[in-house]
């Protein structure tokens, strides 16, 4: 009887070898017990103003160029906040100096991550050319 109780208790808690306890559920991965509408309601999308502040923070932290630094940002009108942290050393892409970065995004109890890349423009400022949801590999 004990083996049956343990088996039925642990049966719903298994994870495949490529899954992580911290992995986020994509929009199409919905179990029968959760309606797609409730999953979408918990996924908060950044506003354009939030993204502008994130891009500005990325440009600022890359311009400073100091090693192991992060740049916080906050949008008082939406309550969103986060920080941007460069991930790698500079590299050359299409003749331009570029760097990758990771940006946190927090709004209320919702938290997510975005990955991005920025390259130095003609005037020496860093221009973000990629900013998208971070996917674990």
UniProtKB/TrEMBL annotation:
Residues 19-134 form the Surface antigen domain. Residues 68-84 have a biased composition (Polar residues). InterPro entries: Anti_2. Residues 61-84 are annotated as: Disordered. This is Surface antigen domain-containing protein. It comes from Tardiphaga robiniae.
